[in-house]
Design a protein that fits this description.
By secondary structure, this protein is an all-alpha fold. About 70% of the residues lie in helices and about 0% in strands. The chain is globular, with a radius of gyration of 18 Å. The structure holds fe (ii) ion (2 copies). One fe (ii) ion binds next to helix 3 and helix 6. Keywords: Hydrolase, Membrane, Transmembrane, Transmembrane helix.
């Protein structure tokens, strides 16, 4: 890692949930990424890989959904936060696309996965439901997805999952987790500005739940099935050794699911801001 890169990474602006900041990163040194970069475990590595598939396209969808309503915002603070939200998501997409290049070099059928995701989610499923619910539905789905990305970020930091991950991938996941927590209220606040319908918020959340979990399990297994380094023995071994992480993930995301259903819910209620500020400072 170059000295120039190190010094760039050490000048982070501190976390501020009231005014998120765009932090440009440059994770260039992942060409040595091992096939199973999460503690040698293929089951979890391919689950994270499934998120790498979802993120760039998903984040472009978030940006489109938010931009469609940003002109309705009169609160100058929310306007500023929307700009930062868009800037952060652009940067996340760029860095995850670099990972996709590495995964393609490892022989993973990344392009096929992305084509399938883009077609089924953004050309078929969401336009179908938008026809009945209108374009506010996409914003509602975005707010719901943001609840999950922030929840995953909080779980990652609280349990130190990123520390099990190899090299620069650890830093990328940590940086993304921190910024997801930092901007977790933005899409939700915009949705509340546009519509205070509980039905719209919850229906969008159900679709977000399907996208965030259904596609992840599907792509995780597609990665596993097309990985020549995995036989049945390793599959079951790695599945067994991922149970301790799975238990935490299922328990905490189930809690987050029911929290979002509460009529008085707001993303800021779950906090996590001091934790992310401490975590961000560990990126060297
Ligand atoms: Fe993101
Ligand atoms: Fe986000």
């Amino acid at each position: 890692m170059s000295t120039e890169l190190k010094s760039k990474k050490r000048t982070f602006k501190p976390i501020d949930s009231r005014q998120p900041t765009v932090r440009k990163m440059d994770f260039e040194t992942m060409s040595d990424l091992p096939s199973h970069y999460f503690a040698g475990n293929s089951f979890i590595t391919h689950m994270i890989n499934a998120y790498h598939i979802l993120f760039p396209e998903g984040e472009r969808f978030f940006i489109r959904s938010v931009k469609a309503f940003s002109d309705r915002v009169v609160d100058p603070q929310l306007q500023t936060n929307i700009k930062a939200f868009i800037g952060q998501e652009v940067q996340h997409g760029k860095e995850h696309e670099k990972v996709l290049e590495i995964l393609a070099q490892q022989g993973r059928p990344v392009k096929r996965f992305i084509r399938f995701f883009e077609w089924s989610a953004f050309r078929v499923m969401l336009p179908f439901f938008e026809f009945f619910f209108g374009k506010k539905l996409k914003l509602s789905v975005t707010a719901g997805m943001e609840h999950y990305t922030a929840t995953m970020g909080e779980i990652t930091l609280r349990h130190g999952f990123h520390e099990k991950t190899y090299g620069e991938m650890r830093n990328l996941l940590l940086w993304h987790a921190c910024e997801e927590i930092e901007h977790k209220s933005v899409a939700y606040d915009l949705l509340q500005t546009v519509s205070n319908s509980y039905t719209l918020r919850i229906f969008g959340f159900f679709l977000a739940s399907w996208i965030f979990w259904g596609y992840v399990v599907f792509f995780q297994h597609w990665f596993l099935l097309t990985d020549p380094g995995i036989g049945w023995k390793k599959y079951f071994q790695d599945m067994n050794s991922s149970r301790e992480y799975g238990r935490i993930l299922i328990a905490e995301t189930a809690k987050a699911f029911f929290l979002y259903l509460k009529p008085g819910f707001h993303p800021a209620q779950t906090g996590g801001y001091e934790m992310e500020d401490r975590a961000l400072s560990t990126i060297i």
